[in-house]
Amino acid sequence: MENKHITIFHGPQHPGITGNMSVELNLIGETIQKATTHVGYLHRGFEKLIERRTVIQAFTIVCRICVPEPDPNEVNFAMAVEELAGLKVTPRAQYIRVMVLELSRLAAQFLWMAGQSGSIGLYAVGQWAIADRDLILDLFEELTGARVYHMYIYPGGVRRNLPEGFLERVSKLLEYMQKRLKNYDDIFINNASFKNRAIGVGVISKEEAIANGYVGQILRGCGIKADVRKDAPYLVYNELEFEVPTQSSGDVYARALVRRDEMDQSIHILEQVVTKMPEGEVMIKMPTHRKFKLPKDDTWVKVESTRGEFAYYMAGDGSEKIRRMQVRGPSLVHAYTLLEDLLVGAELSDVALIMNSLGICPPEIER
Amino acid sequence: MFKKIKSHFATDDVEVKRQDLYKVGVRYDRLFELIHMLRDEYDYKILNAITCTDWIEEGHFALTYMLTTLDRKHTFMIQTMITREDAHAKTLSEEFKQAQIMERDLHEMYGIDFIGNENLKELSLENWVHTPPLRREFDTLEFVNNHLTFREGRDDNVDTKAESKRLRALKKAEKEAAKKAKEKAETKEIKDGE
Description:
heterodimer, A: alpha+beta, Cytochrome-c3 Hydrogenase, chain B, B: alpha/beta, 5-stranded mixed β-sheet, about 40% helix
């Protein structure tokens, strides 16, 4: 029987899609001939909303730009405002910010593990990972009052000091995580069912990754040691020791190994933060929010999120409102320039696997 | 590098913003020459982003290109001004593949025509025929009032003061009715007892 072209939509509502977006797939049999990304299902106009609000009012919505990992948005926003306004944050606040960022990185990696394993039908891993992520969210709830959208890394510092005994509870959780992660190696990373599906799938070459400006695990999975925390250190990352894990094969499995190693590195960073946490204030004196004006100037700040370099462009115009703020997450380029190419020639059953390994987050595409 | 940029591109608008961040302002007709020079001579081979700021009072858009070195240690913000009326610029997608989607995004949000970009189709807005939404003259509230209607019974459409007054009155009436029913029942009990 002759194979005919068929077109199907993968998403926007699909368990194998990472958020509300869809990929239009043109298939012959089960092999993809052409892939076209479509977004627009959750455009909320953040960048427009921000232009009409005062600085502090705008702060309340930035964390909503990415659900799995809101904290890089908060810290980018805070760093951009502080740089434009010439504010300097206390050392304790900087250490607390690093702690929140690394805890949030761990939580996001667990969420990735749930998605990545679910994409090949290993649902037990997902249930474990969500339960373990909850332990981190418990700490967030205690520290910030919220589990997901913390609104904690405020321009000028952090919103409140650490509760009594909090660092001990972090240490206890880290001890648990170190033991627990070995179980994930057995059930997921070293599992033959995952290896068979992931090795040699979704391969990205080193040259292509560099030329097209890909970031995060995509670069590190091709053997390039790229990490904003090392390349252009922010907060107090230059005072902390950690490695940038890399792999060389550039496939889904390489990216998974990189992410798994990064979890160990996050734990290592958190251990140092707990021991080195300085005493002092966590918030500097800020101007009244209605009188808080940003000068006519612009800046570009970036952090390393779980999915790679995450940057903000911010411009002030001398008024209380932000003139322009652009969110530049890794997903815009990954979902279009990369995904549309990578899916050509892949099998239909591998779409979810590949998408999850890229960690695409649609809200940061259509801000 | 700064000296060469200043003399070659006749600009004093070069600034060190941070240890890892520099900014240069350049005339639009020299923009691509500068980008090529930074890419070929100084290793700024990665395009991170293209962004636009609307300076409506001054009648222009500020287009900013972020280029990073291969070792990712330095970023250059290259800014140029283009007029708001009939806004257009040459595409950068021949030099950097990722520029294609960045320009498509800016085309949708600001209406800038990137000449040579093969795909400037709608991205996240569907069948949009109004002013591009990130232009300063686009007023969100006015757009909502003119083009959208609130659904009947939606909380957004409720006059909260009148509604809470109504709810309070309702609660009070219920309480009184319960009180009356109780009194009636008690009177009945007494009568039955007698």
